Amino acid sequence: xxxxGKHCSCMVKSFSDKVWxxxxxxxxxxxxxxxxxxxxxxxxxxxxxxxxxxxxxxxSFLNCKLKNTIPEPSLLLxxxxxxxxxxxxxxxxxxITVIGDYDVDGITSTYLVVKYLTTLGVCPRHYIPNRFTxxxxxxxxxxxxxxQNKSDLIIVLxxxxxxxxxxxxxxxxxxxxxxxxxxxxxxxxxxNAVAVINPNRRDQTEVPNSRVKCLCAAGVVFLFLIALQRxxxxxxxxxxxxEPNLLEFVGTVALGTLCDVMELRxxxxxxxxxxxxxxxxxxxIESLMSEFKIDKITTPENLSFFxxxxxxxxxxxxxxxxxxxxxxxxxxxxxxxxxxxxxxxNEQRKELEKRIxxxxxxxxxxxxxxxxxxxxxxxxxxxxxxxxxxxxRVKDKFNKPxxxxxxxxxxxxxxxxxxxxxxxxxxxxxxxxxxxLIIDGGGHALAGGFTILRDKIEEFSKFANSNISGExxxxxxxxxxxxxxxxxAQISNEIKSLEPFGKGIEKPVFCLExxxxxGMQRTANGDHLMLFFSGxxxxxxxxxxxxxxxxxLQIVKAIESNRDALFDAAGYISFHExxxxxxxxxxMRTS
Length: 591
Description:
The chain is α/β, with parallel strands linked by helices and 591 residues long. It has helices spanning 27-37, 41-49, 55-62, 66-69, 79-91, 104-119, 140-148, 164-172, 217-234, 250-259, 266-278, 283-292, 300-317, 321-328, 332-367, 387-398, 425-434, 457-467, 488-494, 553-561; strands at 2-3, 19-22, 96-99, 125-127, 153-157, 176-180, 195-197, 375-380, 402-407, 412-418, 440-443, 447-453, 475-478, 480-482, 510-522, 529-535, 538-546, 567-576, 580-590. Among the domains are: 2-23 and 479-590, CATH 2.40.50.140; 73-246, Alpha-Beta Complex (inorganic pyrophosphatase (n-terminal core)); 368-467, Diaminopimelate Epimerase, Chain A, domain 1 (Roll). It has 20 helices and 19 strands. The strands form 4 sheets. It has a 5-stranded mixed β-barrel. It has a 5-stranded parallel β-sheet with strand order 4-3-5-6-7, sandwiched between helices. It has a 5-stranded mixed β-sheet with strand order 8-9-10-12-11. A hairpin with a 6-residue loop joins strand 15 and strand 16 (529-535). It starts with a strand and ends with a strand. Mean pLDDT is 91; it is low at 4-10.
């Protein structure tokens, strides 16, 4: 079934200009783990390829559950302080304003806090900042709204770790603040809030066996709700009202986790596994499922490829509060109308993305920006909500850190960045700020945002080119080659134990060697290509799919011009209850 020994990494490039790297395992270690676990050769090989080094790690990974992966919440710094302040606000019936963020993680975090407090009989106000008028983070407009609400307390979600000046303004206005965030702390000092709950605070050590530093904001909020509910329970708060079932929120936490591309290990993995097995989602998610004709959410892709981008579309091209309203709406008819509106916004987002991406690549080719170590593209009035996607497209194409910036008439540009392993954007932006190249900026290791003046763009581009180091070989890592295409169904069954796949446990990539194309046709909407492969000597045919051909025209053109050749196809094995087993093509080359 598997063909392992004869392959090695080589510099022969594929149709998409990638180098195929056939991964090699330590065979002695593989056999030892295989003996201890009883797992198949293929499953162990995939796990070793993803960094697992012993049977104990593998057992913990395969058998993770919520009850044994959720850490003690109070081990997070300021957790108890934040809980006490919110309990005080609840008991004194103080005015609370919840301030979130405009992406999926920020919106799900806001939903969790607002929904939970509402269930307790508290009626918090809420505000989702607008990307275009507020920008990222705790803005002056957000604070003004809190003041208008006569707030005693603001709960800042999915931002705030670096909002030192803004929190001071809140303090001066007599408003307390609790921050629940997960972004990297850039400043040496923390905001002067009542509590700053963030596993990525500089002074926060990793909680043993928890991987809390990999949580999204919704994940940190979930830990906070566990601690808050425990405190309320100890105070006998639930004598007169029912105690909320926090398991009802796990599906929403999973949505935030997947859409913020968090590592699927530890608590994150347990959350996503539970969500997929139990399907407990707000009515608004069910309405979006109906729009997409999804009967049941069975894979992470249902959430991250369909539901998530549609929720994100509200903040990218319109008003992000629409997405929060969808999650909070409890009337089915109204919920369905909001879902329909979001779908239209998502179609608008796709059109804008297509146009701006084309302009960006034209600029890259004309100025040969692909030769730079960090690729910086910019345009006038590019939609700010789209530039993150554009930066991602550029990064995927050239495998280099990429920056996309939209400039307005006032000369101020809003930028978004995407990076590759080895180049930490949070650290990069910290250095850029120290040199006054950007007004502000920050984010994760692999994604971030920043603000820059037009007259700094050339200097910033040179800084990126000279301060980004490393070898950026665009590799496609392949777990193993398959010698027999008829084994796909068996392999699909074997790797089910490794699901759900995601960051840190990426889908295994296989290579079908020396195949012939016996049939080829585009799907009805023209966006995808369906191929049929047979072995070099004929035999059974395998259905293969090449998704998103507009972004993979190099592969399509190469196939068409070498139609009668023998090909190697690299990709994933997919199983669908209705359509059976298919091979999802990631890349191809002539044999």
